[in-house]
Amino acid sequence: MNNLDLTKNTPENVEFMVEAIKEKLRMMNIGAIKPSSFNSDMYEELHDIYNMVMKKNNFSPNEMQAIAEELGRLRNL
Hints:
- The chain has about 80 residues and is mainly α.
- The chain contains 3 helices and no strands.
- It has helices spanning about 10-25, 45-55, 60-75.
């Protein structure tokens, strides 16, 4: 059960969305994507990616690569 209000920028919501994206995509390099690495200023972008990923059932290799690149762009440096 997800009782989180994902419209709110909280560390719990970031963690939930990142973990859900990783699970849905079954990303190989899971260690590279940590919820704590994300910049809170990029919350809206992360939320948009989360919504897009949750709506689709299948992803092409190119789509997965693009999502991984976008997640990488949102991380803190």
